[in-house]
Amino acid sequence: MAAVELTVTDGVGHIQLNRPEAANGIDMALATGLREAVEAARDDEGVRAVLLSGAGKRFCGGGDIGSFVDEDATTYLQRLAEEAGAAVMTLEDLAKPVVTAVQGAVAGGGLGLMLGGDAIIAQEGTKFVFAYPAIGLTPDCGVSYLLPRAMGQQRALAFALSGRPLSAQDALAQGLVTEVVEDAQARGLERATSLAQGAAGAFGDARRLLRASWTRDRATSAADEARTLSTRGQGEEARALFAKFLGR
């Protein structure tokens, strides 16, 4: 059974972490599978929006500690961190909107996978745990980059250093997630389907521009905005919406 599965329905590319027996722990197979699934969704013109979720009771419990012990620790942790980091960056770089649906627990590297999404839907009762210091490790999967941008630096530091989990409602209040619902998978699919049926190209480029702004100077962002706006304005999606807006 594949560690990550991609299915496409009604324009939604549903990427599902598929190691429920291991809380969808990140091992090399899952990291590679996630990167490959995101690349496939990126290259499939039939995919207009992406939904990322995890099978079973927990979205992702972080790194698979058993694999840390079983493999050669002198090289494995770095290779795994590089591969998982590449998967998250590939997800961040998509010019397609991404919805993440989480439930149960989101820990360690699972936070980075989750934050690759734009709309993050959490199920009531979900716990969010920084987790790394409990096993003597430090962030991977882009967590040190993405977490302070989602929560703000001081909240991210407090979360990282306290050792205390956040509830779903705490995560909502601190900007880590965008919604808390009874059924995250159902709401996530609803949200992704809505995005796929809308101006998905514009949504995708908007999320790309916003995410890229963290690593660019003002002039570079402005130039990309103007270039993207011009290209979009000449495309079929915008032209059809222009006509609809003007009643033609």
From TrEMBL:
<dbReference type="InterPro" id="IPR029045">
    <property type="entry name" value="ClpP/crotonase-like_dom_sf"/>
</dbReference>
<dbReference type="Pfam" id="PF00378">
    <property type="entry name" value="ECH_1"/>
</dbReference>
<keyword id="KW-0413">Isomerase</keyword>
<dbReference type="GO" id="GO:0004165">
    <property type="term" value="F:delta(3)-delta(2)-enoyl-CoA isomerase activity"/>
</dbReference>
<protein>
    <submittedName>
        <fullName>Enoyl-CoA hydratase/isomerase family protein</fullName>
    </submittedName>
</protein>
<dbReference type="InterPro" id="IPR001753">
    <property type="entry name" value="Enoyl-CoA_hydra/iso"/>
</dbReference>
<dbReference type="InterPro" id="IPR051053">
    <property type="entry name" value="ECH/Chromodomain_protein"/>
</dbReference>
<keyword id="KW-0576">Peroxisome</keyword>
